[in-house]
Amino acid sequence: MKDSGLEDRLQLAVDRWVDKGFFSAVCVLVEKREQELAAVVSDPAVSLNSLLDLASLTKLFTATLALRLHSEGLFPLDRPLGELTECDPSLAALKPEDLLRHRSGLAAWLPLSICVPPGVDVLDWLLGTEVAGARKETYSDLGYILWGRLAERLLDDSLESLLRR
Questions:
Q1: What are phi and psi of 60, to 5 degrees?
Q2: What is the distance between the alpha carbons of residues 64 and 61, in angstroms, rounded to a whole number?
Q3: Tens digits of per-residue pLDDT, 130-156?
Q4: Do residues 77 and 96 make contact, with C-beta atoms less than 8 angstroms apart?
Q5: Helices (DSSP H) in 23-158: which residue ranges?
Q6: What is the pTM of this model?
Q7: What angle do CA 7, 28, 52 make, to 5 degrees?
Q8: Which residues make Cβ contacts (< 8 Å) with residue 86, sequence separation at least 6?
């Protein structure tokens, strides 16, 4: 049984998010015990069967893990990368928190499957990346990828395993 009040409120929120440019397309499905309560889409070109990018959902888990590891003293967020590992001099003064707060100066996104040569570890490639110019806030997937791969290397464990613990 659909909840028209919930659906109306969701539609208003979705419309505002799209108008403000937060998303180009939105699809929201609310279910309780496999019963659909509300379904909202932002555009007629989007449906409940559309494939949408969910990559940023993983940032919630990564950020939570980063804070937990920092609070336990296992992976500090406030030490320069140059003290934690070898890296390009332009990255040396950056701190892990800069990677997670999107203020590293790294590009927003790169096709890593094309950019990183075969046989080269993505972490080593990212650590060798030169950051040119002033660090400005840029929403960057690369910062999170770099933090995650560095955490795996420094803690000698996978993110999946660290999250499970």
A1: -60, -45
A2: 5
A3: 886 656 788 888 999 999 999 999 999
A4: yes
A5: 57-71, 81-84, 89-92, 96-100, 112-115, 122-127, 141-155
A6: 0.71
A7: 160
A8: 127
